Amino acid sequence: MAVKGLKVLIVGGGVAGIAAAGALAQRGARVTLLEQAAGFLEHGAGLQISPNGARVIAALGQGAALERLGTRSRAVVLRKGASGAQVLRLDLPTGDAGFHLIHRADLIEVLRGALDDVETRMVARVTEIAPDGPRPSVTLEGGTQLDADLVLGADGLHSVIRPALNPSAGKAPFFTGQVAWRALIPGRPDDAPEAQVFMGPGRHLVSYPLRGGSLRNIVAVEERRDWAAEGWSHPGSKAGLRAAFAGFGGPVPGWLEQVDTLWLWGLFRHPVAANWHRGQAAILGDAAHPTLPFMAQGANLALEDAWSLAHMLDQNADSPAALAAWQHARRGRVLRVVEAANRNARNYHLRAPLAPLAHLVLRLSGKIRPDAPLRRFNWIYDHDVTAA
Predict the structure, then answer these.
(1) Would residue 353 be called left, alpha or beta, if left means φ above 0 and alpha means ψ between -120 and 50 degrees?
(2) Which pLDDT value is given to residue 93?
(3) Where are the alpha helices (DSSP H) in 206-295?
(4) Which of 208, 245, 265, 381 is an active site residue?
(5) What's the rounded Cα separation, in Å, for the pair 227 and 239?
(6) Is beta strand 86-91 parallel, antiparallel or unpaired with respect to 174-186?
(7) What's the pLDDT score for residue 288?
(8) Are 226 and 118 a contacting pair, CB within 8 Å?
(9) Is residue 25 part of a domain?
(10) Count of structural domains, the chain
């Protein structure tokens, strides 16, 4: 129990930060969680938690909360964008940890159940970190300095901690030529608990119910040359969204008519950080390895990071050695998942003549081996960082 009594500062109160705080506190660490906002934010949209992430939530003692606030997903249904006709239905396994559809705010609420022994400090914006020496420290806006035995940066895409561990920035992020609109609309209690993917030339739309069908999550992705600002909190144009998906049929036009508040998100490719640790400091989640959303693995990788990092630190009293071993163990898997997400976007955006041929192959494969497309990604979903 190498982390028992260890004083840990965690920067960032999102999925990675809260999960890491819970996993370390569970092992006896004295954890302080620093969040720059005035409270755990209630905004956001839908997330898909696959079994690899759900196992971590269960190990944190929050499996019942996930079942209560999330919805078990039964299937992923691929459809033609123009007509809404089904191309392939992928029935999801219902045993074990399962697949879940959940609002981001509800996931944060689930994870907060693991924070009973964690000190949380709100309106605590970190502006600087000094990672070297036996006691790394952070400086808060206003000048207050805090030190600890270990500092973890779970501060997301625009991390303050990452540049300190990677002074040579390396490749700059670049615009992928894709933008995503996010919206929530009213749902219906009888909506099937499944994710639907409508595929079209240069664009696709994903939708699934949340909160027992009271809400419906929409993520619509379009390829375009125009640059869009990074981040998912930029107001979007409803007219622009409807124009981009004017050729889509089935339920899509009716859904888009119901959109009120809309956010536009420019999708950028960020390199996986070369260094996830330095001295007594480390980064995890999006701070270390941002990923595009096309495998729905951002939150799941963050959960894996949190649990595996706490476990590795607990196995080795030499924290720098434990951090190095953790990065070595995680990096290969993370790179593989990131690349799978990069490829998946292209698969949804095929144009004629490839699209009809690809859809025919999917339909035929669905009749011969219905589970084959899902089995391709079993290496993601079957992974269990809690098994150790």
Answers:
(1) alpha
(2) 87
(3) 238-244, 252-257
(4) 208
(5) 18
(6) unpaired
(7) 97
(8) no
(9) yes
(10) 1
| Residue 334 lies in domain | 7-72+100-171+270-346
Lookup result for tokens 């009271």: 214
Domain contains 320: yes
Q: Hey, how many other C-beta atoms are within 10 angstroms of the C-beta on 85?
A: 11
Mean pLDDT by 10 residues, the chain (388 residues): 94 97 98 90 84 98 97 95 93 89 96 96 95 92 96 94 87 86 94 95 95 96 77 78 96 96 89 95 97 94 98 94 97 96 77 63 64 83 92
Strand 281-283 and strand 150-153: the pairing is parallel
Q: Model-level pTM?
A: 0.94
Question: Does some domain include residue 303?
Answer: yes
Q: Where are the beta strands (DSSP E) in the chain?
A: 7-11, 30-34, 46-49, 71-72, 75-80, 86-91, 100-103, 119-121, 126-130, 137-140, 145-147, 150-153, 174-186, 194-200, 203-210, 215-223, 231-235, 262-269, 277-278, 281-283
Q: For the chain, how big is the Rg over CA atoms in Å?
A: 21
Q: Identify the three-state secondary structure at position 84.
A: coil
Token pair of 50, please?
């696959």
d(CA 303, CA 63): 13
208 as an active site residue: the answer is: yes
Rounded-to-integer distance, Cα 237 and Cα 234, Å: 10
Q: Is residue 252 part of a domain?
A: no
